[in-house]
Amino acid sequence: MTNEELTAVYNPVPLGICVLNRQKHIVFVNKGFRELLNDKRKQVEGWPLEKLFPVFEQSYFKQRLEQVFNENVPLFLSSGLHGVEVAQGLGKKDAYCEVSLAPLIKRDDHYAEQVVLTVEEVTSTVKQIKQQKNLLKCLRRQLKESEAVKQIMEGVQLELQEANAAKDKLFSIIGHDLKTPFSALVAISDLLMNNSHKDTDGKERRRLYEAIWLTATQGIEFVTNLLNWAQSQSNSITALPCHFDLDKLLSELQAFYRLSMQKKSISMRLTYNTSNSRVFADMDMIKVVLQNLLSNAIKFSRNTQLIEIELVAENGNRTRILVKDKGLGMPAHILKSIMRKKRVKPGLGANMEKGTGIGLSVCHEFLEANNSSLLIESIPGKGSTFSFSLANSAKGFHSQSITDVSEHPN
């Protein structure tokens, strides 16, 4: 794959990705990977892999890396065993990362000419697990101090350990065994679709490629929403606000959903009724909110329709973001359930696309963490408008109470 192809495929992926050649040298890093590096290591193209991650100097990992290239066997380094070593390779202190490697196989090839290495920082997750372990230690001390309730507490402790073990296993499977392969599948199938027109009789092949892409995209949406929802339910959600440019974020999302819109011949228009597109909020949370709203707008829009994103200046040093579609709309009872933050049965999109049913719940939680709330206007058969407002400054963020009206009558 050329550098231009790698850039087009992997820059939109919200993970750190670098590509290795058969000499185990880094030939490409995406935007997410470069953001993980400290300032002294911004240019790593051409480096041997072991220079960045010394763990690959060990004979075992050298052998496993050969298996990735020659036997198409993926490799996964867990945060518990090697997470600190990986983070140190990136120039990070007191951080944990997880790494997976997957072969990048061209059509009709039997072995990989290149390998995709994916890095994800999981420091907050590891710290949460450590906090849970510390909680278990405290419970043990309390058991020793109270002999009268020892047997009862031992039963509670066992249940807590089993619950934590099950939860950790679930999050491990969902967060890494599913998300990383799905990300690679989306990127590769996107590339295959873009090249399929070169094959004169490739109509059936392209249909299969599109099915692969759609399945992977829906899988990523489900995994991401499930992880975000689980985080909000565990009371561990904390906003880390900063200044960022909505215009840049929206342009990135527009590019990310380009293929989804092309499949339905949908167009997207950005309208700015404000001179200031900079806001102060948790950028990652707002990105998740906008991803869910745009995904829904595409899903419930009919072919050839228009989706409009509008930024409007509001009094009180705030900016309102509106996502409008002219699609299927929602009946009043569904709208009422959503605004009461109840999980609703996922509806089918205009082209029978499936949803998860938890995306808007995540939006509610993340907007509340940023001192905002979701307003919805929807008319069956005529479309929906989702909107929320964000502070333009730190002063506005900390002084603002949630005053948005949460529901608009049909």
Describe the structure in your own words.
With 410 residues, the chain is α+β, with helices and mostly antiparallel strands. The protein folds into 3 domains: 1-121, PAS domain (Beta-Lactamase, 2-Layer Sandwich); 125-236; 242-399, Heat Shock Protein 90, CATH 3.30.565. The chain is 49% helix and 18% strand. It has 14 helices and 12 strands. Residues 401-410 have low confidence and may be disordered. It catalyses: ATP + protein L-histidine = ADP + protein N-phospho-L-histidine. Its EC number is 2.7.13.3.
Topology:
Elements lengths: L2 H8 L5 E5 L5 E4 L1 H6 L12 H4 L6 H13 L3 E3 L1 H11 L7 E8 L9 E8 L1 H23 L4 H46 L7 H31 L8 E4 H11 L1 H6 L3 E7 L4 E4 L1 H18 L5 E9 L3 E8 L6 H8 L19 H11 L5 E5 L3 E9 L2 H6 L11
Parallel strand pairs: 7-9
Antiparallel strand pairs: 1-2, 1-5, 3-4, 4-5, 6-8, 9-10, 10-12, 11-12
In short:
With 410 residues, the protein is of the alpha+beta class.
Strand content: 15-25%
What is CATH's topology name of the largest domain? Heat Shock Protein 90
**Order of SSEs:** HEEHHHEHEEHHHEHHEEHEEHHEEH
Question: What does the main sheet amount to?
Answer: 5 strands, antiparallel
Query: What is the number of helices?
Result: 14
On the 0 to 100 scale, the average pLDDT is 77
